[in-house]
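Shipment paperwork, digital attachment
Item: protein structure file
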Amino acid sequence: MFCWIATAALLVVALPADVDGVPVGLLAGYGVFLLAAAADGARRGLHATLHLGEPFRRLALPLALVLLAVPAGGSLAYGSARDEAKEQALLDRLAAADTLVKSADGLAFDKAEPIYRRALGEYQDLGTAHGGSRAGKLVPERLDTYYAQIAVPYGKKAYCEAVAPLTYLRGLPRTVDKDLLGTRPAKTDDPLAHSLYECGVAALGVEAGAPSASDSLNALYDTFPESEHTAKVGPAVRSAIETRTTALSGDAPCSATSQLRALRSSLALLTDPAVGNVAKEASAAVQKGVFACGTWQFKGKDFDDAVTTMTQYAKDYPTSARADHARSIAIAAEIADEAPGAGKKLPPSKPAGGSRMVMVISNDGPGSVEVLYTGPVSGRATLKACATCTKYPAPIFLGSKKIKACKGPSSKYPKTTLLLPAGTYHFLQKRAATGTSSLGDTKSSKQKIEPGYSYTNCLYVTSLF
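Attachment content:
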């Protein structure tokens, strides 16, 4: 009776079989109890007087064997059930890792990477420490799915987006069992090189953004210097320059120039020596673009920007054959901002030939004066302030009298002499502020210069006060 009770208790504890099995102490206690029961039975049998017939004696041995076989068979069955429980637990871990991988699908890679690493840790343990289990044998198939999911952006041709996940996959052998990964990391080399190339080339000429062209193309050269994609960088850069140079003759030359500047900046940061000569082409294209942009601004009546662009061109490229023309355009644009007629057409690229007429300009007023002119030729001149000159009364105070400016000794007035080919000119005088006036004075005028004449021009200031 006690043996049945002990056996029933053991079954309640042991079933159903799990990974940890029955506690060792409980099994040892049960075994000791059975041995004690067997010893007690043997003692009783030795002292008992049996009145059994021969047939019952013959059944004793088979019955004893059956009694021994039952616990032995039960142990084997329990061991098998426990092994199955272990296999199922490993399969559950595999399924949990699969769920992690699926949960990262569609997330930005910086958010998904920690999830992928946790799942990979499970795969690695199952594939190495439990490689002979049913779950362990499924790990290679799961790794194929793992690599394929992480590399999805490359399949979608989202090359910039693909760089980070492909770099991660390629670097896994540094932290994960190489035998488990097999050839999978090496298969990411070409997709990564291709992604770096496409991402870098797409960023050429882009003024702002991440990653920059130099970041991607330098990573390509440093990581895969012998790749076919690295060899294509030089031609791709040259093509990008040519495309934007062609666009300078279109309707957005300033935008194309900005892109060329950004492209030139990227090339200055590249480590690939193959793009050294291409960088010179980019600089030449930028110079051409700045002039095209200033011209386009002038023609579009955007005179303020044209002044800035062409003044900077002349400053940055003083030895350029177009430097003088850029200065002329800047002067004409500055005049046109006050006198729109000066901006009807570009100043000529070369000064007009033939004879020139003299124009003497005198300053009969306080403050220095800068004189700008544009026509067949363009230029600027500065007259010093007249130390003894004062302002004249405004015409409304003079009645029929005329202002008699520049009537004193010639030496009294600062002068400048212009030599002008015949033609129509627009003038702009910009008088500086003086101690008696915090504001300067700007005045525009138009004058026709005819052959065979000389001209004088007296600049003075009137005041209501």
